[in-house]
């Protein structure tokens, strides 16, 4: 039935255009036009934007537009792919898909920003060759020239170089002032890491639900080290001003850059561990060196 | 230190010295080693709590620091805390003598406690039996022609084989299975993969059916996050699950439930 639709987008590949605005007024112009075009073509249309934009979009399009609040669901940029973009696109039953995205806004912290760049770069890889459009709005006047330059690198057009910008943001992570728990583990000791995580979560006054999240995330990270990271690793846990941080370092590397960012569906073989890590953490940062992989999961208190 | 009683002939799993700043790390370390030594999940917190009380006592009353040893012997885990005996010289009562010291709490938590105090300081040894029970308990029953496996505990990398074994046994006996998840405390990625495996096993059987019953709110949220919630038949209770017609609708007419 999609064949009969008029004005169906002629090109087959993935479109990831950058919409560069300046101020809230331009958001209204650019975003509304982008979304209206999709609706006119009979595409399935969604917007994944910070909370402050939701009202404008709901008013303009009503129920025809599916809305995702990135302040909440996209707090960890690593879960935008599995929980928003893939989730919406995979449910489209063959219809064309168009998504407006604004993953970087003024309130994003210095700690979160590299994860945003990584998400934008990986979006190209995630949907390469797939017939859909993800248009990204950036408010240049609020975000500044460096962010705009990065946005050019992760979106189609002049300056496109997603791999280079991902490398550039694969930065060493700031060393904590004081670490509360350090545990070296291997296959035999991996199970014990869960108890350490639970203890630390309780000591940092995390609630029961969040403590179980911490326990599960640490379990998945350390199990990953045992299975794919050379069989052993180092777990460190500490508190920061407003977060509990769990870090696992091992001798592994990301064989699949999209690991943990794809829905696992009904697969019975793996693919769900890092996905759980992304879904349950408020932020995930990674750093790779020639012979090590470090993953940090942040839990907001 | 010649008066210090040797802990045991068994090789220690843990032997460390601590002071007031190290109590946090001490708790984590004791927990990790106790779990690894096979102490049941529910007992680990008791042991950790007891270790903390003893170590804190050594810090406050026993000269600011102490030594903790942990070893496994005779199907039990033993933890010993000793202080240096350099406590307040003007205070004749050592910490081990005082009932205000939290020792009553320790006594309640552990199976056995041994306290010696003298000029060399105080040595407290506590013991907890290691029960051999798997951290996943599976109770099998038969309800209205359905095989029901009630799971209790952790479904993870280590216990998935127990589930798999119980499921293949069940598949030989019945084509209809209910997994009662009410008492599942923890489930990891291999646990979720195992649930999908069970679904495949039972879907492959002639007129086979799998129903998940009574998942906690948290587990339900996880299933939704992973996009698995709609892939399973899920019911709030076992009673409701076994009244399901194979067409997928609850059988309410004439049901005695």
From TrEMBL, chain A:
One of its GO terms (molecular function) is kinase activity. Pfam families: HATPase_c_2, MEDS. Keywords: Kinase, Serine/threonine-protein kinase, Transferase. InterPro entries: Anti-sigma-factor_SerPK (IPR050267), HATPase_C_sf (IPR036890), HATPase_dom (IPR003594), MEDS_domain (IPR025847), RsbA-like_anti_sig (IPR047718). CDD domains: HATPase_RsbW-like (cd16936). The keyword Kinase applies. Residues 16-156 form the MEDS domain. Residues 193-296 form the Histidine kinase/HSP90-like ATPase domain. PANTHER family: ANTI-SIGMA-F FACTOR RSBW (PTHR35526:SF3), ANTI-SIGMA-F FACTOR RSBW-RELATED (PTHR35526). NCBIfam families: RsbA_anti_sig. This is Sensor histidine kinase. It comes from Actinocorallia longicatena. The lineage of its organism: Bacteria, Bacillati, Actinomycetota, Actinomycetes, Streptosporangiales.
UniProtKB/TrEMBL annotation, chain B:
Pfam families: HATPase_c_2 (PF13581), STAS (PF01740). InterPro entries: Anti-sigma_ant, HATPase_C_sf, HATPase_dom, STAS_dom, STAS_dom_sf. It comes from the Bacteria. Residues 136-245 form the STAS domain. PROSITE patterns: STAS (PS50801). Belongs to the anti-sigma-factor antagonist family. This is Anti-sigma factor antagonist.
